[in-house]
Design goal:
2 copies of one chain form a homodimer. Chain A has 183 residues and is mostly helical. Chain A has a single domain, classed as Winged helix-like DNA-binding domain superfamily/Winged helix DNA-binding domain (Arc Repressor Mutant, subunit A, Orthogonal Bundle), CATH 1.10.10. Chain A contains 6 helices and 3 strands, in the order H-H-E-H-H-E-E-H-H. In chain A, strands 1-3-2 form a 3-stranded antiparallel beta sheet. In chain A, strand 2 and strand 3 form a beta hairpin. In chain A, helix 3 crosses helix 4. Chain A is globular. Chain A starts with 7 loop residues before the first helix and ends in a 35-residue tail after the last helix. At the A-B interface, helix 1, helix 5 and helix 6 of A face helix 1, helix 5 and helix 6 of B. Chain A binds a DNA duplex (30 and 30 nucleotides) through helix 4. Chains A, B: GO terms for molecular function: DNA-binding transcription factor activity. Chains A, B: This is MarR family transcriptional regulator.
Chain lengths: 183, 183
Amino acid sequence: MTTRWLTPQEQRAWRAYLAATHLLEDAIDRQLQQDAGMPHLFYSVLANLSDAPDRRLRMTDLAETLKITRSRLTYAVTRLERDGLVRREDCRWDKRSSIAVLTDEGTAVLERAAPGHVETVRATLFDRLSPEQVGQLEEICTGIARGLQGGGTEPGAEDVPWRRRASCSSTESSPPVQPRRSP
Amino acid sequence: MTTRWLTPQEQRAWRAYLAATHLLEDAIDRQLQQDAGMPHLFYSVLANLSDAPDRRLRMTDLAETLKITRSRLTYAVTRLERDGLVRREDCRWDKRSSIAVLTDEGTAVLERAAPGHVETVRATLFDRLSPEQVGQLEEICTGIARGLQGGGTEPGAEDVPWRRRASCSSTESSPPVQPRRSP
DNA sequence: GGCTCTTGGTTCAAGTTTGAAACAAACCTA
DNA sequence: TAGGTTTGTTTCAAACTTGAACCAAGAGCC
């Protein structure tokens, strides 16, 4: 079957997408690194925990909502634990699982870092989008994510290399960006 | 000044954005790694070179269009050079510069990898977007990128941590995704 | 020419990510 | 309930990224 190459407009969109995501990711990482001494992913770990009931989450669930590999999360949590921002606890029901818990210090650090982070997200992204564009972005991204989620519904796509073979947890959760109920 | 927190809709959009970009990047990296034995960035280096006049580009210019640091590019080109896909040449006019040149083997590898890559980009992104959404995506991303480009035009933003202090080359170029004139 | 500043590129160490094991606990199922 | 599979997590080495430091060459100035 002959390749369906990208149309000129698709190419433009794709290039713009690559540039924008690169720049945005860089900007956010840089800001957080400077102001909070941690990369974006680590901040996201804290933020997600802060939003979870009782500030605790099973490692796998956390990895799932963050869309990262378990191994990557292990690394992040290990580092955050060393810094005292997160603590690991054993799960009572399932002895295989371990639970990451946000410590008080972690909460404090998060709340100190959140304003700068949110400000950056605003300045780099939302301040440049019209309200309609925010809606468009949400819809576009939701669609993409749904397509790449474990449980794709389209026919005949069992083992293509771009689909994660990880288990798909059916429960949808909502990762936060800012601390739960900031003061 | 009190923080302007994200509105519920902005939060939804931001979460969707993070999920989508993570999943998409993962999917593309995985496909390219499996089928071409290289991460996305390396492929992009080849693709950009293939589209440049005479298949050669100054390191700095390449880094600029790819939106990556010079050091990161150095690493990538070193690896690609070891594999024989790219060659370095000295610049005749400016003895500081070095030029990355796509070799014949590099061209061959790129042309072999391109169909699968484009197919993945289609399957994961464009097949899920309506024509209007492609336009919207382009516009949104172009805006974001423009804002983060070195030469921002807004007032009073000289040294915020999220702005790159790298020099901004004024000449705009257009990075390709697929090889120049694929066979 | 000599000085200083900027630009182009690499190097290096420390940090992060990847993917393939390894392990242990839970879950079948015959 | 023994054996086999699945699930939750970590470990490890290799690959990649980051940012600061370095070096060399161009540019501007006296």
